[in-house]
């Protein structure tokens, strides 16, 4: 099979690494890719926003299957254009990608299908939103409706904080994404991420993970795209996985099909495990970054037929095997991230991959042939172990061998799981 992978992050490096091991793969292309992905794929310069150009490339190079990594092209409808041109694609239609693209859309599905989630209301103006917050009291959660790169959510511990967040949204802090606001009850519990493939009619549970959203040790400082992750999430017992499938994933899949927009791709459910059980915080319609990196380290099965089964509706005919050994990844980021940071800082040495240990590239580039950091999140140092503690020790030993002066990382990735192991 000839495959085109779209994206350029650590997630896509992990996908490329795993796809490249498939006996069914004949050639892998990546657009735009990164220097790590270049080890597994031919990089191509393609304007991803120009869907017709992507189709033309697929025709020229006889691409059989397109795997879309990030959400933005999906929300923009790249899967629709490819399917209309008879190119198989991993990833949902624009209509189905609304599960990530619009928080209000997802909340309405939850209400209609009785999916456990925080009680909510949608607002298109500040006065009504504020009156609702005053009536409900704090803690309460204020969310910009649309895609806001993970920054559109305020978990307000006081009413004043919530009122300020409402002003931010309607005053344009998140652009178009904030034209509508969802106000939601605060859920108390432990967070976990759940990944599940779906072909529109069948669902195949993959694995669980936990990430670390805050930039600083001890979960302090501003939110980021994720500073590290591990899999599996100990809080996701077999019982919680079964309940998530039955109470959250299956009704969503049914709801999407009944609404005429069957979902094909990966459900990434952000869950809060409360005293009542799993409740949905949000859906993403693509793999998590860096959660994908730890998932790929644990996946024993060939990835390509699993993703392809999503595209052709045969997910009931495949299974996924996982290593019981946990995997953990530490994100190395440019100093200053998630604020502003210097670009093109040199990375002078990377450790070699070992058995169950690997450095995935995210925001890296080549400048005059030398490796440089081009983004906020730059490297994902990943390792497996018999325990989370062992995976953590191995990942940090590897991170210590990276020679990159402008890089930093959290020192406590995995703390919650390691506490449990004690
Ligand atoms: P989201 O972008 O929806 O994942 O929200 C970002 C983060 O805000 C989540 O990972 C949670 O930590 C937190 N959060 C979102 N919604 C709620 C909620 N209803 N209750 C408590 N925390 C929440
Ligand atoms: N790490 C969180 C995300 O990919 O959305």
In short:
The chain is of the alpha+beta class and 422 residues long. It has 13 helices and 23 strands.
SSE inventory with pairings:
Layout: E1 2-7, H1 10-19, E2 27-32, E3 42-43, H2 51-60, E4 65-68, H3 71-75, H4 78-84, E5 88-90, H5 98-101, H6 103-113, E6 120-123, H7 126-136, E7 140-144, E8 153-156, H8 159-170, E9 181-185, E10 190-199, E11 203-211, E12 214-216, E13 220-223, E14 228-231, H9 238-258, E15 264-274, E16 277-284, H10 291-298, H11 303-312, E17 327-334, E18 345-346, E19 357-361, E20 364-367, E21 370-373, E22 377-384, H12 388-399, E23 407-408, H13 415-421
Parallel strand pairs: 1-2, 1-4, 2-3, 4-5
Antiparallel strand pairs: 6-9, 7-8, 7-9, 10-11, 10-15, 11-14, 12-13, 14-17, 15-16, 17-22, 17-23, 18-21, 19-22, 20-21
Verbal overview:
This protein has 422 residues and is an alpha+beta fold. The protein has 4 domains: 2-93, Rossmann fold, CATH 3.40.50; 125-179, 2-Layer Sandwich (Dna Ligase, domain 1); 190-317, D-amino Acid Aminotransferase, Chain A, domain 1 (2-Layer Sandwich), CATH 3.30.470; 327-421, Glycinamide Ribonucleotide Synthetase, Chain A, domain 4 (Alpha-Beta Complex), CATH 3.90.600.10. The protein contains 13 helices and 23 strands. The strands form 5 sheets. Strands 10, 11, 14, 15, 16, 17, 19, 22 and 23 form a 9-stranded antiparallel sheet that branches. Strand 15 and strand 16 form a beta hairpin.
